[in-house]
Design goal:
By secondary structure, this protein is mostly beta strands. The protein has one domain. The chain is built from no helices and four strands. Strands 1-2-3-4 form a four-stranded antiparallel barrel. It is globular and about 25 Å long. The mean pLDDT is 96.
Length: 64
């Protein structure tokens, strides 16, 4: 499942995100969602989230 729909993402889910500094390379970081930062129902580049580790990025894939 991709990360463009806010309704697919909730706290506690394991996701793969792209950090702002990794947008050019597309390098992904995995973690567990702590907060959802995007307010709109969808976002073409992925919903922005904060992981439990404190990292912030856009969801590329929901892992489970």
């Amino acid at each position: 499942m991709d990360g463009t729909r806010r309704s697919d993402i909730r706290a506690g889910l394991r996701v793969s995100i792209v950090l702002k500094e990794d947008q050019r390379t597309g390098r992904r970081t995995e973690g567990v969602v702590k907060d959802i930062l995007t307010n709109s129902p969808t976002h073409p580049h992925g919903v922005k989230v904060r992981l439990e580790s404190g990292l912030v990025g856009r969801v590329q894939e929901v892992l489970g």
